[in-house]
Amino acid sequence: MRVVETIAECRKELSKLRQFGGRTGFVPTMGALHAGHVSLMEICRPQVEISVASIFVNPTQFAPTEDLSRYPRPLEHDLELCRASGVDLVFVPTVAEMYPPLAQTTVSVSTLTTLWEGQLRPTHFQGVTTVVTKLFNIVQPQVAFFGQKDYQQQAILRRMVQDLDQPVKIRTCSTIRESDGLAMSSRNAYLTSEQRSQATQIFRGLAKSESLWQAGERSPAVLEHAIKTTIAEVSALDIDYVAIVDPETLKLLDTIDTGAVALVACRLGTTRLIDNLLLGNARQIVESD
Ligand SMILES: Nc1ncnc2c1ncn2[C@@H]1O[C@H](COP(=O)(O)OP(=O)(O)OP(=O)(O)O)[C@@H](O)[C@H]1O
Ligand SMILES: CC(C)(CO)[C@@H](O)C(=O)[O-]
Ligand code: BAL
Q1: What's the gap in Å between 255 CA and the centre of ligand 1?
Q2: The whole model's pTM is what?
Q3: Is 37 one of the annotated active-site residues of the chain?
Q4: Fewest CB atoms within 10 A around its CB: which of 71, 145, 147, 218?
């Protein structure tokens, strides 16, 4: 496995790896890797000849009030996990490499980025779409792997590659969970042990809507209420939103025809946690290319 820090080195290594042809798969991350990230790398590897990961805590997707400075950066451990996952190349650029002082170009997606996470983090998705476009331009993958946990992010990136004719297929991979159901997330490291056990209530809320769905419930209002009241049993959890939305447009649904996604965001102390659940045929949408 090669680790490179500059765009020039990354391109050079990629052209060596590509001399015999083959498809390139790409897993972009912000590091502090856990089993969720490892699953993306393990799903990527058998599908391509050349697998690439990136580790970059992208400053432009953090608001000034957010956790950029305290975001965990255990680089050596991250590289060990990449090596164990069989990745060929890891790109670990510096901020100066990705954003030279004269940089002034951004990529933005409109309506989808104004909803949900975008309402609470108004500058966040423009940072994501800009850095992911830059990474796609540098790595030039045929296929890139993202987690379902960040549901809105993958929906926006799917829109972006279609709208800008970027020649990359987006694959969305299932959320990996702790044994009590909490979605794995680098930010879980911020939780105290008490908060860690409280956090699992988010999954209990989603599981409640799943069992109602299985029993035939199709009212978005009933499903939303069930999630909210279950989460509210733990008073330490402050709900930012619970919404039953269309899997593609992320707009609120009045009725559910065939599928929906339940989106949840909560605050627990100073930590924000997000999670979601696919209902009905929503899986077909996230599994489409
Ligand atoms: N539990 C998970 N299961 C599957 N994929 C995941 C999981 N958590 C994160 N990912 C995916 O890994 C990729 C990199 O995400 P990132 O480095 O931001 O990790 P994260 O755990 O989501 O961090 P954060 O806590 O900051 O949101 C994204 O595509 C993200 O959706
Ligand atoms: C896609 C991403 C690597 C862009 O910085 C980030 O938003 C993430 O880790 O989900
Ligand atoms: N996984 C999403 C990255 C972020 O919250 O900044």
Answers
A1: 30
A2: 0.98
A3: yes
A4: 218
